Amino acid sequence: MVAVVHDQDNAGRRNGSFGSGPRSGHHPLVAQPHTEGEGPVAAAEAVAAQISTGQHALGRPGKPLDRRSPFIIGMSAAAGVAVTIGVVEMIVTVRDVLLLIGVALFVAIGLEPAVSVLARHKFPRWAAVVTVLVSALAVVGGFLAAAIPPLARQASQFVTQAPHMASRLQNHNSLLGQLNDRFHLQQRLQQTISGDASSLFNGLLGAGQVVFSALASTLIVVVLIVYFVVDLPRIRATLYRMVPHSRRPRAILLGDEIFAKVGGYVLGNLLISLIAGALTFIFLAIVGVPYALLLSIFVAILDLVPVIGSTAAGVVVCLVALSVSLPVCLGTIGFFVVYRLVEDYLLVPRIIGRAVKVPALVTVVAVLVGGALLGIVGALVAIPAAAAVLLLTREVLFPRLDHA
Nearest 5 degrees, angle CA 24-CA 27-CA 32? Predict the structure, then answer.
């Protein structure tokens, strides 16, 4: 039978009828011309032509190997160890790239609720994506256009007032003079400026490399965000296809709930940071603290980091306020204490508390652990990651333990 099919296959090739004649086990675009010198492979090709059908062009999957075979068990164990070592080394090697991909996917999931809302209101998917992305770019561009001129002006004022600050450092009766006497600020600054020229050049070169790397990373993240937002439905479907069919409906419910929590957290956290920056700018402008816009932007950025972000930014702002006067510094401390209470007990519960629902203790622990593992990025994603873990624990782990 094998020889007959093989002869028919050769006849089909001689007649050039690859598409109309009998199916061939030897692809017409691979390793031609077909000869009789292939030996046992030719017989296998004849069988391959038999099992290739219209419904299964590449044949039906064969029976699985006997997993209980000692050889299979040994090879599986060795392969598992080798694959694990290789995966760990690969992750360590490309950890920076994976971090950028994770940040982009995190932001894309955060933008998805806005896209889905527009899509439910009769917007085509592409139109909803374009609208959200253009709106986000418009907000960022408008913010930069409004912030850069005042920042440049305040930087120029700082350079102009630097000699006056230096004279205040030498005044032993002023607060800056007393700090200078205690911590030798002026001496340290002069040592830094009058240091080795090569060290200064290397420092400037290193700073330039850091700035260039930051710009390149930002551009990569922006491009990845666009691709992730556009292809998020397909990415979601692909992830769910990897789950066994019997468990897929449950995985869809849990996965979509996690996506919704991440999206609600990202949008809510951005809104709270904007509120923090705006209130800080208003307060600093009222009490006359210099560089109010620069400091308010600093507060808004650090406030993205839960729990410790606004507190760290408040310490820096209070130190700047101390250069004005002690009462202004005390007032600034009071402002940040009150804002911290308002954010923790009013803004966070109302804006993102309903979506995330993470206990305060878990929030603090998650932020500390995330920051220790991945720095600022780890602290940013710690709360939604903790919310996902709590959801899986409540819906999957606890029921199994209760019935164990």
Answer: 115
Model confidence, pTM: 0.61
Q: 3-state class of 391 per DSSP?
A: helix
Number of domains in the chain: 2
Could you tell me the pLDDT band of residue 188, with boundaries at 50, 70 and 90? low
Strand, coil or helix: 149 = helix
State the Cα torsion 187-188-191-196 to the nearest 10°.
180
d(Cα 204, Cα 206) in Å, to the nearest integer? 5
Reference 189, options 165, 155, 213; nearest CA is: 165
Neighbours of 28 (CB within 10 A): 12
Looking at the structure, tell me whether residues 37 and 105 fall in a common domain.
Answer: no
Which pair of structure tokens corresponds to residue 203?
């420092």
CB contact at 8 A, 343 and 272: yes
- Residue 314 corresponds to which amino acid? G
Based on the fold, state whether residues 235 and 129 are members of the same structural domain: yes
Query: Does the residue 404 lie in any domain?
Result: no
24 lies in the same domain as 153: no
**pLDDT, tens digit, 9 for 90 and up, residues 372-384:** 887 777 877 888 8
123, part of any domain: yes
User: What pLDDT, in 10s, does the model give residues 201-234?
Assistant: 565 556 567 667 778 888 898 889 888 988 888 9
Report the C-alpha gap between 393 and 338 in whole angstroms. 35
**Upstream peptide bond of 33 is cis (omega within 30 degrees of 0):** yes
Residues 102 and 45 placed together within one structural domain of the fold:
no
Indicate if 220 and 124 belong to the same structural domain.
Answer: yes
- Asked if residue 150 has a cis previous peptide bond (ω within 30° of 0), the answer is no
Domain boundary residue among 222, 242, 262? Answer: 242
Give the range of the structural domain holding residue 40, as residue numbers without chain letter: 2-51
In a domain, 357, yes or no: no
Residue among 355, 345, 389, 383 at smallest CA distance from 367? 383
In a domain, 383, yes or no: no
